[in-house]
Amino acid sequence: MSALRVLAPVPGTVRAIGQVPDPVFAQEIVGPGVAIEPDHVGLLDAVAPCDGVVGALHPHAFAIEVDEGRSVLVHLGIDTVRLAGLGFTLHVQRGDTVRAGQRMVTWSPVDVAASGMPTVCPVVALQADAGAVTLDAAAGAHVAAGDPLLTWG
After folding, report:
1. Which residue range or ranges hold the PTS EIIA type-1 domain (predicted)?
2. Are the CB atoms for 8 and 49 separated by under 8 Å?
3. What integer is the mean pLDDT of 118-145?
């Protein structure tokens, strides 16, 4: 299996996955990864972290199916499913082939924060072994969308 470079889907500050205020992510139940506290701006584009096919798609989250059974999940904020899509604009459809850096969803971290929900964005290698993922950006570092975030080897 070739190494998969996963890029930052949003600009912001890198956080350890264990700091995400949701046990499913913090305890790596769905897989290992990292999180980004997005820049707090009015509108923000979340981009594809890698090439692949849109497998799961919700206003607040999406998964890119890559190859050999690998999928990368991006979750925009925590508990944002409660917003029922309000404030999220989808730019792709399930089944679309996407390229790394392609705009997927536009959303507002400021509005999510105003709704009382955490804005942190987990980026997860779904069902991966913890040892298969290495971080390319250190916790506390600021990344731009498209910067190297992790490698899934």
Report:
1. 22-127
2. yes
3. 97
Residue of 40, 58, 60, 75 with catalytic role:
75
Tell me the average pLDDT of the chain.
97
In the residue annotation, 75 being an active-site residue is answered as: yes
pLDDT tens for each residue of 23-52: 999 999 999 999 999 999 999 999 999 999
Sheet order of strands, 97-98 included: 97-98, 52-58, 61-65, 71-75, 121-125, 33-38, 12-16, 142-143
For the whole model, what pTM was predicted?
A: 0.98
Can you name the CATH fold of 10-130? Glucose Permease (Domain IIA) (2.70.70)
The domain ranges of the chain are 10-130
Host H or E run for residue 111: helix 109-114
**What's phi and psi for 123, nearest 5 deg?**
-125, 115
Predicted local confidence at residue 153, as pLDDT: 92
Give the dihedral sign, CA 26/6/126/39: positive
